[in-house]
Amino acid sequence: MSQTGQPTALFELDRADHVRADPDALSELMGMRARLMKLHGLTPELDDNGCIKWGSLTEADPDAELVFLGLDGDRGCFAAVPKRPVQVQRGEFMATITRLHDRQFGIYAGARSLVDWHARHRFCAQCGAHTTIGKGGWQRNCVNPDCGASHFPRTDPVTIMTIERREEDGSRRLLLGRGLGWPGNLYSALAGFVEPGETIEEAVRREVMEEAGIPVAQVRYLASQAWPMPSQLMLGCTGVTFHEHIVVDRTELEDARWFSEEQVREVMSGRPGLFEAPPRYAIAHKLLRMWLEKV
Amino acid sequence: MSQTGQPTALFELDRADHVRADPDALSELMGMRARLMKLHGLTPELDDNGCIKWGSLTEADPDAELVFLGLDGDRGCFAAVPKRPVQVQRGEFMATITRLHDRQFGIYAGARSLVDWHARHRFCAQCGAHTTIGKGGWQRNCVNPDCGASHFPRTDPVTIMTIERREEDGSRRLLLGRGLGWPGNLYSALAGFVEPGETIEEAVRREVMEEAGIPVAQVRYLASQAWPMPSQLMLGCTGVTFHEHIVVDRTELEDARWFSEEQVREVMSGRPGLFEAPPRYAIAHKLLRMWLEKV
Fold first, then answer.
1. Would you call the peptide bond into A157 cis, given omega within 30 degrees of 0 as the criterion?
2. Residue ranges of the Nudix hydrolase domain (chains A, B) (predicted)?
């Protein structure tokens, strides 16, 4: 908080897990000083620096369920669950992410995933009865006493990977693909959900085999990122193959092909090149950069 | 498959993603040669080598929903969804996992997570209507035409981490904890769910701070494992700290403390030591071993 009592736009959010299960602490935090994330549906209001704008809880619909996001110092920060599930177009989401300040990405990603999950889980998947919000928004509870199931927000692990082929002359090639209906001439790293029963490394190998027919030898984890459309944990990996012939799965991809180091470097330098690179805020961008830097 | 037409107990399961959305291929695979995982509730029948036993689809309850697990060569492999959610005690689950062959872990883990998820998702979380199985068991669809939501099996990412403290004399200490109600004198790596909006590395730091009050500097991913109780993706990491004073979160842990390299080595060698090590099939066991080997 600044000296004037105005909240500073940039702050670290303490998730304050211990508060969630403490109804007294939670209701105390819902007082005058509480902050409400300014959301229109799932789209945040941002200031000129790309920082999320906050209001007070009085701005929320009186019937709205409130999710406790965490603490900014001693002030509770909340977000309101939309009345019904909101469909956000990819363009609107991308416009938000493009403008959003890097250091606010996690705060927005967490809030968006949570309130969207609540809006889509007002009923119990086990018995069909109503559910009510619990633990400050980190749980929903079935109201049917014969069921009483608890439900928790979900985060879906997704692998995303740069796959490298080494030529006999020592040069390197990178496997990139284009999803169906992707804008412009965008090519990016292949990606896919981790399935029940798999490790990260198995999921990488299965996805690359399914989508491009390429067997992958060694797989290495590089970095992760939250991706709130709707609630993924992107697991950035890199892998090596000695196989060249691509078989594109046309139900998933429009195209997949090998690019040379020079081609990727040109595109990532921002100059017009053979294809469009993934946007800078996507983990795919970071993975392509790491591939160029041989991380 | 062996020459005699009997299925071999050990085989690689091809998840055959392309079959799931192809009703004709699926129904063809459900013929005479199809294999059904022998499950009692969620507990598999195992042979003397710890391999899963399989029967034919005629052994399934005629009303049971069937999940397509994948292909063994050209034979479809399936598992039946229990009529109602099954509660498995930790002891029964551990007994299964202890006996299960290493190379069958992923097959069982995937099947168990899937059929358990179906048994708990017979209703639409969005509108409360019934759902029906779709895509060979990799989806459920709401029957209410005004809703029509699709639901997908979930996999919850969980971080689990060895945290190392380096002494001035160059010796190393390892942070381990005991969960509430854990058997015997078991100590293991701290662990916790990745929350919406977090990276793996952020989740590791938050969990270790919450559970033990220890700030973690550098975090490094080491390995992952599926854990079907009910459906986790365990993300094994290691981290370094320079902080000594532990503050145990008594709502989560019974104890947390530093162990010396000698103490951990003794316990992991199988000799009676200061504590009991996590069982060999758990990723925690692998993480402790990697810590000793300075991986």
1. no
2. 153-289
Give dist(CA A80, CA B216) in Å, integer: 32
d(Cα A64, Cα A36) in Å, to the nearest integer? 12
Q: Which helix H or strand E contains A93, and what residues bound it?
A: helix A90-99
Burial class (CB in 10 A: 0-12, 13-18, 19+), A277: buried
Vertex A190 angle, CA A184 and A192, to 5°: 120
Tokens linked to B228: 């079907």
Q: Do the Cβ atoms of A27 and A76 come closer than 8 Å?
A: no
CB-nearest partner of A113 from B151, B196, B249:
B196
DSSP A96: H
DSSP state of B55: E
Distance CA B45, CA B51 (A): 8
Chunked mean pLDDT (size 10), chain A, 295 residues: 50 92 96 95 95 96 96 96 94 94 95 98 98 98 98 98 94 97 94 98 98 97 96 98 97 97 96 92 97 96
Strands A190-193 and A156-166: antiparallel
What is the rounded distance in angstroms from the CA atom of residue A228 to the CA atom of residue A225?
10
Provide the 8-state DSSP code for B102. Answer: G
Dist CA B237 CA B260 (whole Å): 19
Residues of chain B with CATH 3.90.79.10: 156-292
| Integer angstrom CA distances of residue A178 from A158, A183, A251, A277 | 17, 9, 12, 11
Nearest to B69 by CA among B28, B109, B24: B109
B234 class by beta-carbon count within 10 Å (0-12 exposed, 13-18 middle, 19+ buried):
buried
Q: Which residues of B touch A111 (CB under 8 A)?
A: 197
Query: Do residue B228 and residue A17 have CB atoms under 8 angstroms apart?
Result: no
Size of interface A-B (CB pairs under 8 A): 156
The answer to ipTM > 0.90 is yes
SS3 (DSSP) at B49: coil
Strands (DSSP E) along A201-266, which ranges?
219-227, 232-241, 253-260
Q: What is the CATH number of domain B156-292?
A: 3.90.79.10
- What's the fold here for domain B17-151? Nucleoside Triphosphate Pyrophosphohydrolase (3.90.79)
Query: Which of A22, A158, A221 should be substituted to probe chain B, the one whose Cβ sees the most B Cβ atoms within 10 Å?
Result: A221
Beta A219-227 vs A232-241: how paired, if at all? antiparallel
A214, amino acid identity: I
Q: Which residue has the tokens 């196989």?
A: A243
pLDDT (0 to 100) of residue A8: 55
d(CA B253, CA B215): 17
